[in-house]
Amino acid sequence: MRRLFPLTADPTSAPTARPTSAPTAAAPAGVPLLGAPDSDREWSLEEIAEAYGYPPLGPDEAWLRANMVSSLDGAAYHDGASQPLSGAADMRVFGVLRGLADAVVVGAQTVRQEGYRPARARDAFRARRKAAGQPIAPAIAVVSSGLELDFDTPLFTDPLVPTLVLTGAGAPPERLARARRAGAEVLLAGEGAAVDPARVPGLLAERGLRRQLTEGGPRLLGQFAAAGVLDELCLTVSPRVTSGHAARITDGPALEVPADFTLESLLEESGFLFTRYRKVRRSPE
Ligand SMILES: NC(=O)c1ccc[n+]([C@@H]2O[C@H](COP(=O)([O-])OP(=O)(O)OC[C@H]3O[C@@H](n4cnc5c(N)ncnc54)[C@H](OP(=O)(O)O)[C@@H]3O)[C@@H](O)[C@H]2O)c1
Predict the structure, then answer these.
(1) Model confidence at 237, in pLDDT bands (50, 70, 90)?
(2) ∠140-211-105 over CA atoms, to 5°?
(3) How far is residue 238's CA from residue 69's CA, in Å, rounded to a whole number?
(4) Cα(136)–Cα(134) distance, rounded to whole angstroms?
(5) Domain spanning 60-279: which superfamily?
(6) Any atom of ligand 1 within 6 Å of the Cβ of 196
(7) Nearest to 248 by CA among 277, 219, 283, 280
(8) In the prediction, which pLDDT does 279 show?
(9) Distance 105 CA to ligand 1 centre (A)
(10) What is the position in ligand 1's atom list of the atom closest to the CA of 195?
(11) Distance 25 CA to ligand 1 centre (A)
(12) What is the position in ligand 1's atom list of the atom closest to the CA of 144?
């Protein structure tokens, strides 16, 4: 893996929490790594983790990062799964982003379609998580209104930390009871059956889950983007073309005004581009 941007000797260019002014796009002066002799070797999980640190957060602050993969022509899945777009380096980044997170927020359709399991405790992140005061694995937080989820699967019956279910107060009561019986912690984030996406980061932060990672899918991510609560997008551009009619990585109503993001870093391995963009927060007029 090699760093294409910024060209600096310092691989740890973590963004700062909720900046109020437009960031500078200029690369800091440093030693270009592109031509370095070992610039294309496989990075350790530790090195990738250094490159993807969350910004320092105050006790009440949350940071919602998304991690998605897209084909060159913009598809978010092929044959109903993201795996055909992914590759070895993408899976390493995926694992590292989980290893850094307090909670992984995911839409119910992705859970159903990709057969989500509980997050693993991985030795590579044990010391880092302990030092950061995190449990050994992130909690998976499933967003659903209908709660048509299989509560007999390990995601609910056998997680290392209890799986969360984010839903609305109007969700089917018998399914709510079923989720609780299965051991899930149910968080109500809406008056009807739906979750208000704008409430999700704060609700999780109240439980100490401030370093947040959403893995989509596109319909959920579209809502986070539209609600203006997406702080960071880690988008893998896969060197594959799929054509067809798959959704893009956000699938929902258009934003009234397109949201601006600024490039934090760009890594490359085997033709895959690992982009990391941070939302530009404008200071109030
Ligand atoms: N390219 C990538 O990186 C990537 C990442 C993840 C997934 N995927 C792919 O994307 C596809 C699935 O994505 P998707 O967009 O169809 O679905 P999704 O976003 O994963 O899940 C949609 C479901 O989430 C629940 N949901 C979403 N917003 C909600 C809200 N505001 N309140 C309550 N519940 C809400 C609903 O569940 P209920 O129906 O239970 O109410 C809804 O049906 C799969 O093919 C998967 O492989 C790709």
Answers:
(1) very high
(2) 30
(3) 7
(4) 6
(5) Dihydrofolate Reductase, subunit A (3.40.430.10)
(6) no
(7) 219
(8) 98
(9) 10
(10) 32
(11) 33
(12) 34
Q: Can you say whether residue 102 is alpha, beta or left, with left for phi > 0 and alpha for psi between -120 and 50 degrees?
A: alpha
In this prediction, residue 283 has a pLDDT band, given cuts at 50, 70 and 90, of confident
Neighbouring C-alpha atoms within 13 Å toward the C-beta of 185: 12
Report field, pTM of the whole predicted structure over 0.85:
yes
Burial class (CB within 10 angstroms; exposed 0-12, middle 13-18, buried 19+) of 83: middle
- Residue 282's pLDDT is 79
Decide: 218 in ligand 1 pocket, CB within 6 A: yes
Following DSSP, what letter does each residue of 40-61 receive, concatenated? TSPPPHHHHHHHTPPPP--TT-
Tokens 């997406």 sit at which residue?
A: 230
Q: What is the position in ligand 1's atom list of the atom closest to the CA of 197?
A: 31
Nearest CA to ligand 1 atom 7: 217
Determine the Cα–Cα distance for residues 5 and 269; give it in Å rounded to an integer.
Answer: 13
pLDDT band at 31; cut points 50, 70, 90: very low
Residue 52 is encoded by which pair of tokens?
A: 């993807």
Q: Identify the burial level of 112 via C-beta atoms within 10 angstroms of its C-beta, where 0-12 means exposed, 13-18 middle and 19 or more buried.
A: middle
Q: Where are the domains of the chain?
A: 60-279
- Of 255, 247, 245, 191, the closest CA to residue 223 belongs to 255
Q: Judge whether residue 17 has pLDDT over 80.
A: no
Checking if the pLDDT of 183 tops 80, the result is: yes
Is the shortest distance between the CB of 112 and ligand 1 below 6 Å? Answer: no
Residue 44, both tokens: 């350790």
Taking residues 1-30, what's their average pLDDT? 54
């299989």: which residue's tokens?
150
Which atom of ligand 1 has the smallest separation from the CA of 218? 15
